[in-house]
Each structure stands twice: as C-alpha cells, then as structure tokens.
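User: Hey, my collaborator sent me this sequence without any context and asked if I could get a structure. I don't really work with proteins. Can you help?
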Amino acid sequence: MNRKALYNLINPDTIKLIVHTFMRKTLSLLGALALTAVLGVGCAGTEQKFGRGLGNMTEIVRGNEFQRSVEQGGIFDGPDTGISTGFVRGVNKTLARTGVGLYEVVTAPFPPYDPVFTDYLSPRPQYPDSFRPRKWADSIFDNDQSMGFSGGDVAPWFPGSRFRVFDN
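Assistant: No problem. I've predicted the 3D structure and written it out in structure-token form, which is a compact way to encode the shape of the chain:
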C-alpha cells in the first residue's frame, strides 16, 4: 500500500543545522540591540544632537529660513533685487538646514555632539524677524485653574497663523 505516513521521520542532522542557524541569527540581532542600547541610552549629547537634527530636518516643511531670507532681502537690498536674491538665499539655506538636520539625526549616537556647519547656519532653527514663536495655547505650558483655558499661539503649525489668545 502507498499510504502517507502520519508522522515523517526527521533526520537529526538537519535539526542541528536549523537550530545552529537560528541561534546565529538571534545572537547577531541581540548583539546589535545591545550595541545600540549602550551607544544611545543616557547620553545628553546624543539627545541634544538628535533633537537639534529633528528640528533642522523639518525646516523644509516649516519654511522659516526661506521666509526670513526673503524678508531680509527685501528690507536690506530693496524690493527689486532683494526679493529675488532672498528667494535664492532662502532656498539655499532651507536645503542646507534640512541636510544638516538629516546628518545630525543619522550620526546622533556618535561623537562629536557639537553643532556642525555653524559658520553658515545658526545651531537652532531661525524664524522671520516679524514673528517670534511663543508658547502654545495649551494647558501643558500654561494652565489656568479658574478659567479652564490659557493664552498662547492658537495654531502655530499653520503657516501665517499669528492669532494669539490673551495677547496684551
């Protein structure tokens, strides 16, 4: 009779090979995780570099460096040439700050932890001279127990939003 067996016999040599390969991959993964934990945990420099990198990397979305360059170009160089020069300078600084942010995020676990490219860009993201962000209208930053709400920027993530609550 040609029946399929309910259980197949397994060769003990193949079991050892499978277990050995599995353990090799597992130990490699655990070693990589341990190295990441040792390099990335508890370092104030790493946290600052990573946070600075995230702030700089989002410059292409925020566009504050671009807006600042166009504004300053129009004021200092005149409206005719200043705005076009400010446009080119703003695109250049926006791309430079985004690139520096990407570099700092990727190299955050490794020293040096000081800001890079500071001869052209300041370490912190820039804002236009006509706007300085302040705290948000959120109970985390400024709670008022008696009224239930507080002052601050209403929607600071929207471009051009300058509306504030209780601005004296």
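In plain terms: The chain is about 50% helix and 0% strand. You can pass these tokens on to your collaborator as they are.
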